[in-house]
Amino acid sequence: YPDWGEVIFSKAATYIQLKLQKIIRENIRYCKLHFNGQTVGQHSSFHKDFDQDYFWTFILFTQDHWNTEWGGEFVCLNDETNQYEYFPYIPNSGVLIQSNWEHQGRQPTNKRQDALRTTVAFGYIASKMIDHHLNYVAKPDDQVWRMLP
What we know:
Elements: H1 4-24, E1 28-38, E2 55-61, E3 74-78, E4 83-87, E5 94-98, E6 103-105, E7 117-126, H2 130-137, H3 143-147
Antiparallel strand pairs: 1-7, 2-5, 2-7, 3-4, 3-6
């Protein structure tokens, strides 16, 4: 029997992939899925999803109801401009960044103590770099090594 959650997220990843390819004008392939949830007082830290510049991350804001006064914005350091960019948490929207950009999700503010900020991050690799990554960069225990067929 299929894992229906896996099927749903694979379909979402494919739909998002097709949209993103139009934006970045490059063939990409889904390689990573990450779920996140934060409540008031749960701080996150700046991080990179991958070190290489041939990966992209699309962060989907998954709450169906959210007031921007509750916080939860997404922050990234744009490597091209060396400026921080802030994106409000708006339900059913998302942000696309290169995966080697420093980024973080901000916690909800104390204006709504029971707020739960949830996201799903979809990772993609440039199709032309898959063989290179698997042959020269990835180790057998790397996530991308395991996820790509």
